[in-house]
Amino acid sequence: MEKLSFEIQISAPPEKVWSVLWDEISYRQWTTAFTEGSFYQGTLEEGSLIKFFDPNNNGMYSRVVKNIANTEMKFLHLGEIYDGIEVPQQWGEATEAYILEENEEGTQLMIRIQTPEEFKEFLKRIFQKLLELSKICLKINFKFKDGHKLL
């Protein structure tokens, strides 16, 4: 299992960062770094299953293993979804965690990933793109189509 780590300092309180990460509308905005039109179905309650989709009904499904509001969200990835059909995978402890720590400048967002070797380079590219998108959005005071500010 490969371990990846990404961090970004955000000039906003953890509550605001959390809201941007997990509210349905803003989630669709920042996940354009993965695929334009990404969305999730399900709840973010600990123990629940959640499905992450692209616009073609493909994606992956995971279990929410930790949800501490404004602090940490962690997923255990269980399998892929093709044309809406779940296909279990033997990924072991493939996890993705979003950790928020408040500091004097706002919030340090840390993303910790455990992944099979085969996904390492892909995830490195995607998450670097994600962090670059976040920085650009912060610098231009990004607004969503409905008028909400990103941060």
The tally of strands reads 8
Share of residues in strands: 35-45%
What is the chain-wise order of helices and strands? EHHEEEEEEEH
Distance between the termini: 34 Å
- Backbone shape: globular
**Oligomeric form:** single chain
Helix content: 10-25%
Supply Rg. Answer: 15 Å
The DSSP helix count reads 3
Mean pLDDT: 85
Largest sheet: 8 strands, antiparallel
Which structural class should the secondary elements be placed in?
alpha+beta
Poorly predicted ranges = 139-151
Quick synopsis:
The protein has helices spanning 14-22, 24-30, 120-139; strands at residues 2-10, 39-42, 49-53, 59-68, 72-82, 85-88, 95-103, 106-115.
Keywords:
151 residues, alpha+beta, eight-stranded antiparallel sheet, 3 helices, 41% strand, globular
Give your account of this protein's structure:
- The chain has 151 residues and is of the alpha+beta class.
- The protein contains three helices and eight strands.
- Strands 1, 2, 3, 4, 5, 6, 7 and 8 form an eight-stranded antiparallel sheet that branches.
- Strand 5 and strand 6 (85-88) form a beta hairpin.
- Helix 1 crosses helix 2 (24-30).
Set down the secondary structure blueprint.
Layout: E1 2-10, H1 14-22, H2 24-30, E2 39-42, E3 49-53, E4 59-68, E5 72-82, E6 85-88, E7 95-103, E8 106-115, H3 120-139
Antiparallel strand pairs: 1-8, 2-3, 3-4, 4-5, 5-6, 5-7, 7-8
